[in-house]
Amino acid sequence: MLNIMKRASNTSTGPRGFSLAEVLAALVIAAMVLVTVLGIYSRAESCSAAITRRLDNSRMPSEVLQRIAEDLDRIIISDTTTKITFKNKFENGFPTAQLAILKTIVDARSKSKMVEHIIWQTNYDYDTDGLVLYRQRISEIGLLEDKLLDEGRESWEQGLFVPICTGVTFFKIQAVKDGEPVDKWSGQVPPGIEVTISFAEPFKTLDNTLDVPDEQKCTRVIAIDRARKLKFKIAPKEQEKSKTISELPGILETPDETMSNPPGTSEPKSGTMGSPPGRLQPKSGTMSNLPGRLKTKREK
What we know:
Order of helices and strands: HHEEEEHEEEEEEEEHHH
Strand order of the largest sheet: 5-4-3-2-1-8
Structural class: alpha+beta
Distance between the termini: 165 Å
Shape: elongated
Strand content: 25-35%
Mean pLDDT: 75
Low-confidence stretches: 251-300
Number of helices: 6
Helix content: 25-40%
Radius of gyration: 43 Å
């Protein structure tokens, strides 16, 4: 009876369990696989973030410059009712600028009213340790820029500075006049405006200000009043230039003409008075007039 009970206890009908060594080995393998997968995922995420950052850095400046160009093209007309004011300065070492576009009209009562007043400017943000680009638009006659968005706003809400983007490290505005850049402008519309912006990492210069490498700056020159009359001048062709030079009298001297006029003599040589200037004379006629020429054997 006792033997039967021992046999029954030794034979188990349930599944056999894992040993401690097998469990530890499985945990080690699983941990190694998990670490490898997480490393690959982290590397792929960092590469994706770098690519996205590069695309944003190249796309954001273009979008900002395009928006500024649209504001200039929309309200600027070559008359005395549009004025532009901009200035550049340094704020906490960062190059900042402010651009103001003012468009006015005169009503029936000879009173000046502001049609649109747009301001683009950057300010230093202590939280991000960088510049924030803002835009403000005001209209006294109730001109809406976007009916869907501006129609439900209050009058005081339309004069607020709206943040466009953050992380700006360089923002500069210059006027192009007579081919030279001007850092400050106030008055009538200049011939062109040059806007430069960058989101790259700045470096400190010798004068304790911050700057960005030139290859990482995005610059756009915006032409004002593109419909103005341009005066074009057609340059002469190369063949016409050479033909004009060859027709000028006495311009080119040939070696034969130089030999026919030895130094110390001012009298014209024979055979050259009746010929037009610049015409080559025959070699025999000019050589015979040289003083002290050598005689041939026949002449001797």
